[in-house]
Write a structure and sequence with these properties.
- By secondary structure, the chain is of the alpha/beta class.
- It has helices at residues 2-23, 68-77, 96-101, 116-126, 129-132, 149-155, 175-198, 213-216, 228-238, 260-280, 289-309, 311-317, 319-344, 347-351, 356-376, and strands at residues 37-40, 51-61, 85-90, 106-110, 135-138, 144-145, 161-170, 209-212, 243-254.
- Strands 1, 2, 3, 4, 5, 6, 7, 8 and 9 form a nine-stranded mixed β-sheet that branches.
- Helix 2 links the parallel strand 2 and strand 3.
- Helix 7 crosses helix 13.
């Protein structure tokens, strides 16, 4: 019996250590130089059987004076040559383009704002990116990458992979960014790995998505939805352009809203866009694996949100039982916050956790509102909201 108990403890210890290593943000290491061309496993006519992959970075930006410098510094520090970095200034009025030029990268300016999707399309055509490169790394102008980001992305590509998405982390700022950090960690620890293995990733986030150039050339950067990253992700699935995989070692640090009003606007855009994409591609009636994943996530979301918003009513009807459930839910979330704080080295997640139930109500209210307006009232919503930087 003692031997069996020892074996069980050893097995549990090994599983725990492996899970911790998988969920923990790695400590920074010395950056490896990223050359203009990468050796990787693609079909190749060369004698060695290895084809050189050419990679570029494309950054659309609109009034990003506070963020673009930090973004470019991190991209260059990660080893990307400045001649392979492209900034598309979409009619900025704050000197974004001038700051980008000071870093020695390529800059193209729209005289007037034409929107993110159309700007990406224009930049790709102007610089002939899909003809000159094998991989296009797309990122936001508030994104800072870790030192081995590009190596991690390129390592994920082969002839069958259409896109690689990295892991987003929230830049520490206040209680709202602490809450968002928990949300990102839950997505990383619970969803993304499984979605990647099953081939059902629904969103390759715009802040951390790299595309095979021939796939990028086939994407339509439409304006009929307000979440271009999710729209393009579903296009890849629908057109069977290849696999979309998750690379947890490709870390990006992104700025999230710093006040409640901005947070609500951003969440509303994301939720409205998710319903729009599902409606556009008829995912509610689809029968592919990604359709079932969408139905599971959105169906579970709308049911949970409705039940959660009715908690005050449940408390009036069954105060003791519902009170126990609410208390249990809070303790469960507190436990997740502690694990997230440990794995991501973010003690602010635990310190801010008392405010998280309020934000859960906010999230649920936004999700239900977006569902009602897009799916029930069939409203056409095209409002795009940009987060103020800090």
């Amino acid at each position: 019996m003692r031997a069996e108990n020892g074996t069980i403890r050893l097995a549990v210890g090994r599983i725990t250590r492996r899970w911790y290593r998988a969920c923990t943000v790695p400590r920074t290491t010395s950056p490896q130089p990223v050359m203009k061309e990468f050796g990787n496993k693609l079909n190749s006519p060369t004698a060695s059987g290895i084809r050189i992959m050419r990679m570029c970075v494309l950054i659309p930006a609109k009034d990003e004076r506070l963020g673009i410098g930090k973004t470019l510094s991190s991209v260059l520090a990660a080893g990307a040559p400045p001649e392979d970095v492209y900034v598309m200034d979409d009619g900025s009025s704050d000197g974004t383009g001038d700051i980008a030029r000071s870093h020695g990268v390529n800059v193209l300016v729209n005289e007037k704002n034409i929107g993110k999707g159309r700007s990406i399309q224009r930049a790709a055509r102007h610089w002939s990116l899909t003809a000159n490169y094998d991989v296009i790394c797309l990122m936001d102008a508030d994104t800072e990458v870790n030192e081995n980001y590009f190596h991690a992305c390129v390592a994920g590509f082969d002839a069958k992979v259409a896109a690689v998405c990295g892991r987003a982390l929230s830049v520490p700022h206040n209680w709202l960014t602490a809450y968002r950090s928990l949300a990102y960690w839950i997505s990383h620890a619970i969803y993304k790995g499984g979605q990647s293995s099953m081939g059902v990733i629904t969103v390759a986030p715009g802040c951390a998505a790299s595309f095979r150039a021939d796939v990028f050339a086939q994407l339509d950067w439409n304006t009929d939805t307000i979440v271009e990253d999710m729209d393009c992700t579903i296009q890849i699935h629908r057109r069977k352009l290849g696999k979309i995989i998750y690379q947890p070692k490709a870390l990006v640090y992104t700025q999230d809203p710093s006040n409640l009003r901005s947070y609500i606007k951003q969440m509303y855009r994301w939720d409205v866009g998710a319903w729009q994409v599902g409606k556009k591609y008829r995912m509610a009636s689809g029968i592919t694996r990604v359709d079932f994943e969408y139905k599971l996530l959105m169906g579970e979301g709308i049911i949970f949100a409705t039940i959660f918003l009715l908690i005050p009513l449940w408390l009036l009807l069954w105060p003791f039982r519902v009170g126990l459930l609410v208390g249990g839910e809070f303790l469960f979330q507190l436990g997740l916050s502690m694990v997230c704080a440990l794995c991501d080295r973010r003690k602010d997640v635990v310190l801010s956790s008392l405010a998280f139930p309020l934000l859960r109500f906010v999230d649920c209210g936004i999700f239900v509102t977006a569902f009602w307006r897009v799916m029930v009232q069939r409203q056409q919503i095209h409002t795009w909201f940009a987060v103020k930087r800090y």
